[in-house]
Amino acid sequence: MANAFFTDLLSTISERGRTLLGRGKPADGKEDASSLIELCEALLSGRGEASGTAMASEVLESYHDLDATERRDFFHALARNFGPDRDKVNKAIEAWMAEPGDGNGGALHFATEPRRQELIRRLNRAPGGTGALVEMRADLLSLLNGHKDLAALDRDIVHLLGSWFNRGFLVLRRIDWSTPANILEQIIRYEAVHEIRDWDDLRRRIDPIDRRCYAFFHPAMPDAPLIFVEVALTETIPGAIAPLLAVNRQTVPKDRARTAVFYSISNTQRGLGGISFGNFLIKQVVEELRRELPKLDTFVTLSPVPGFMSWLKDAKDLPLTDEGREMLKHLDEPNWFENAELATQLRTVLEPLAAFYFLKARTSKGRLIDSVARFHLGNGARLERINWLGDLSPKGIRESAGVMVNYLYRLDDIEKNHEAYANEGEVVASSAVKKLLKTEGRRLLDMLP
Prior knowledge:
Layout (H helix, E strand, L loop, with lengths): L1 H20 L11 H13 L3 H17 L2 H14 L4 H13 L3 H10 L3 H9 L5 H13 L9 H14 L6 E4 L6 H10 L8 H8 L4 E7 L9 E8 L7 H4 L13 E9 L10 H15 L5 E4 L1 E2 L3 H7 L7 H7 L11 H20 L11 H8 L3 E6 L6 H7 L3 E5 L5 H11 L6 H8 L3 H4 L4
Parallel strand pairs: 4-5
Antiparallel strand pairs: 1-2, 2-3, 3-4, 6-8, 7-8
């Protein structure tokens, strides 16, 4: 209610401010990029709260009406014309050189701040400004690859969004069948790991007593989940996704559940890309589950390996014999996994390669190849188990040859594992995973230079 009151107050201020502006719109009622930049300059130079809020609203509304080319021109103008004020920077440098100290140091710091950061702050004052800026940043991301001069603008937006979406502002909410439909629709739309086919499928994931779903929300975007995780309560660690999602599966009574399985984590806001709060989500959900179900003693993921197949196809230095390379060609055959003999032969090749992929293979920059692995290992999880044919969906076969993995979150070891990965690049793995390299995988490793 407090958030709704604040939003209504901003809207009232904005509407009153519009009457103060007395600013006419173009004849066709639409702004172009150049006139929108003029409005941004006016917003930066203004001091009135009401008129500033109204002007910020007008900027965001007008931006929404720009076509793709005009949005690109708008971003370029922000990058080109709204950097630091050079005269202020030079004067601050001279003052610092003449008399170094906290006072002049602080003045230099503020002088070097790009003008667009203050512009973005003022835009955020508009009703719905936070969500509009997140959407604006999503548009910017689509342009970055071809326009390197926009990188500084993106850094400034990320700097501010990173502060506004600090973990301290986020609210954890459980998603269940009583959650408003507009939020449930977003859970269906943004599920990125295992497609939710319809409302019945969604209900099977969030309504039974052995299922949970949690999401982070921001007070400025109360109807938009930022990231959500789906959880299955089980008796043991699962090795395949199909039984967890089966229509006619047997429900596990809460008093028999010992394992919480995080089987899907999805971000919903592309504009918040690079601003990570997924690790906080997992840790807080663990605490919520432990309070509700004290008998839970194992917290584990059932995760895809989305980069595995592309690595198999593109890597130049796969530790394989000629016979092994020939065997991999069978992965191009439709439904190869239905041939039991062929699947067994491929398993002897692919399981050691999967262990190698996690424990030894790296990008040219020395990073783990798999984004999901980087996320969980960076959060302090342990690579617990490699599951052969854990995901037989078309996506699972296409991206990971059906391989899934379990990452174990052992609460006493999370910090130690995180430090090992962050500082040394070490992948903390179970003896079962390491054994794949020491036994079946030994002949493959011996082939490396």
